């Protein structure tokens, strides 16, 4: 088995893991989760009604790679990457730490690359002595990580017994790596790092190692012969019940008007959307194939003729030639006002009716204000593709309209073939659908929703679904071959792997 991280990285990161988890939890208590607005030039972020000073730590891409802030060419020389420049220097010192010295870090060797990006960020937070992390989606399934440096966020102090135990225990498990350690743990490094961070004198006795907190409570951690954490005990100064932990509050933070938080995609409409979305994207690909075979010059602008209800796709041949297909207008989206107008196509009526029946009649109205939702353009893409699927459409086209608006047209031409199950394109389709839904989905139901999306593709084409992989994966059978959708621990679609049945990891 190859190691998850280098020995040098483990040696640097492990002593910080206990206190970092404690600090991360405190930060999330003090600064509520919510919509994130970043000003990279000013090195600030707004979240939960506060404005905080931050640095750009890095970003996680959909291909399972991590890009450090210092390696991002868009921010070369900018103050916002000063913190990660410190990590770069640290990584280049001595024998070197490849995870810090290399700008692009491939995490695909990890069991869960997305979760690995969380762990990498926590380690970096510890190495920088930072006060928190802000993590947000910047498109599709990709994420940006900011490290909080604002002095208005206090450092945590050892508090409730169960909180201290959880942080030490989880920290001693977070970076286990059998390739380096075999069956041994690294609890001693975590406990000693925790004591050092809090400025506590280490005490070693028969019961274990520990220290005395500011309020007199006594911490004793039992370490096993294999350097695993066997137990954590906190007693009061007299050996009895521990005293309450200190109260820590944020001081001097800049308050901002958080305003109303954008809503996720309406949950009541998801049972209508999710089984059909990937199929609709597969149909878009079938439309593109048809147009290319007919001579369409890919990338050339498409024109909509409302009088003849046709779309004209320019061909590469000389002259004004075009591929002409029949269509119907679904509606028009204005990004400036985040408003959508249904055009009255009867094929969209089942979706509009479902919106009303699910408790969201505002989406069924002729004019829809989407400004209160996350990513209004994503909402429109999801609605139009679902409407096209319900209305037996053969693909969706977007055409520029007046005033910077976009017109959505469903192709109804029977000459365009219906989509078919395609092993070579299943990854493209399912990941494309996941990229639409993920930024607007509720975090609480993400695992259920992403599995429903993947299952919808398989069932739409009558493919047997393979459920034997537990929560980590869902398979679809293409004869002797299998497409396996892999999910991260939070439910995000991580990747789609294709191979002989049973072959994908």
What secondary-structure arrangement, pairings included, does this model have?
Elements: H1 7-13, H2 17-30, E1 37-39, E2 44-47, E3 50-60, E4 65-68, H3 82-92, H4 98-101, E5 104-106, H5 113-128, E6 132-139, E7 142-148, H6 161-174, H7 178-181, H8 187-197, E8 203-205, E9 208-212, E10 218-223, E11 229-235, E12 254-255, H9 270-293, E13 303-305, E14 310-314, E15 322-334, E16 339-342, H10 349-357, E17 367-369, H11 376-390, E18 396-400, E19 406-411, H12 426-437, H13 446-460, E20 465-466, E21 473-478, E22 481-487, E23 493-500
Antiparallel strand pairs: 1-2, 2-3, 3-4, 3-7, 3-12, 4-5, 6-7, 8-9, 9-10, 10-11, 13-14, 14-15, 15-16, 15-19, 16-17, 18-19, 20-21, 21-22, 22-23
Helix pairs in contact: 2-5, 2-6, 6-8, 9-11, 9-12, 9-13, 10-11, 12-13
Explained architecture:
This protein is α+β, with helices and mostly antiparallel strands. The chain has 13 helices and 23 strands. Strands 1, 2, 3, 4, 5, 6, 7 and 12 form an eight-stranded antiparallel sheet that branches. Strands 13, 14, 15, 16, 17, 18 and 19 form a seven-stranded antiparallel sheet that branches. A hairpin with a 5-residue loop joins strand 18 (396-400) and strand 19 (406-411). Helix 2 (17-30) packs across helix 6 (161-174), helix 6 (161-174) crosses helix 8 (187-197) and helix 9 (270-293) packs across helix 13 (446-460). The longest helix has 24 residues, at 270-293. The relative contact order is 0.10. The mean pLDDT is 93.
